[in-house]
Amino acid sequence: MSHHLLEFHDVRFRYPDGTEALKGITFLITHGESVGIVGANGAGKSTMLLHMNGHLLPTSGTVTVGEVPLRKETRPDIRRKVGVVFQNPDDQLFMPTVFDDVAFGPLNLGLPPDRVRERVHEALRQVGALALADKPPHHLSGGEKSAVAIATVIAMEPDILVMDEPAASLDPKARRSVIRLLNGFRHSKIVASHDLDLILDVCARCLVIRDGAIVADGPAAEILSDATLLAENNLELPLTLQGRPAVERTRR
Amino acid sequence: MSFEAAYTGIDRLDRLSYGNTVVHRLDPRAKVVATMAFAVVVVSFPRYEVLSLLPCFLFPVLIAALADIPAGFIARKVAAVSPFAVFVGMFNPLFDPATVTIAPGVTVSAGWFSFASILVKFALTISAALLLIATTSFPGICRGLRRLGVPSLFVSQLLFLYRYLFVLTEEAMRVARARDMRSFGKRGTGVRVFVRIVGTLFLRTVERAERIYGAMLARGFRGEVPSMRREALRPSDAAFVLAAGSFFALCRYVPVPQTIGRLLRGLAG
Lengths: 252, 269
What we know:
By secondary structure, chain A is α/β, with parallel strands linked by helices.
């Protein structure tokens, strides 16, 4: 499809304390793309994600989602199109039961109860958490919380799924199932993470951010195998590309 | 650590509410109304009344039995908060000048009766409230309150209190553990450190609240927490409220123990 789904044009953002977090970000994400965002701590990844659903508004420059430019008045529209999964599932899951939490978004969209029930069912099925529907979030394990947090957003059927560290603090098995889950989505995906193996597995394209600006934008396989570029950004080659035999590692 | 014990207590109360007994299945509204009526009736007994209150214990006992709630657990919880009631009533025996003859030659201050009455009323109302939570779940009660017409803002606050109570206590436990691990003897466990910990927890809570609000806005929150459960009241709910109500009225207006006593004396005579 030719129409641009998400466009940042020379976006700058200054926090009230004067820190300039974004210094002219420009990129274009089209339909069905999967894009990883990597960079050192404090490079501006989270600030960028917060612009995607209008939690923050650019100090200058424009953010456009579909045909809609991000402004204070258009935020509800934008939020319908862009679903953000925050890093800490405890912040994302605020309702007393998993079912109520997943239903929260669709109900706010004004859907009739039958449709809401369908959507909740479908979203929980997709993340493999149907059995958890009646549980309160505080009795879930970390992996279950992450899965449900993703379900709360996909139940709103957004055009773009934005995720901040979707697999942080998950055990390898839970992390693997999140990766499988992400690969199963037909949405456009934007994933910010330090887990470069995850980006490599999930994303076709990768942006590297440094000091609030984009320093590289290209195919993930290419960027994530550029050891020099990664080192300049406090990153390392993904483990799968390091080619170190496991035996050697244990001997050290 | 007593803090952790208190936490596991709340958690257990929460898990008990997953049960599926006759009592659990009743509509939250019916249980909320009955429990409130019970509290009002118990509190309305005259201040020196002790004996006539005793039949009221049948209500919590029956609920606990039907709902399969371990009575010992509820009793321990009641005992844990009882110091409040003890402090409220402990000076009554000293300051109440009236005396009562309870047996030939034995007179005590009437204050002992009002003290005992306070304790009994306390045990009755608290155990009923705990049983309400243990059989209805906190969110269930909130749903009931909302449908009984309590303002949405108020109910949302209660829901968040419940949801984040667990998150906050876990956070506090982690911080306390980190402190204990690096404090030796009395150093590190003093008041000054405690005050700072409370400050830190408060700041973290504010930041978390902001993140949660962001997550709510991201999912279209516009000021009202939506709910889609539309439970209809069943005949069993009405029967429960009616039965409970008549029982409370009986306890309140007929001095049951005295009547039984008179009956027995009548039989004997």
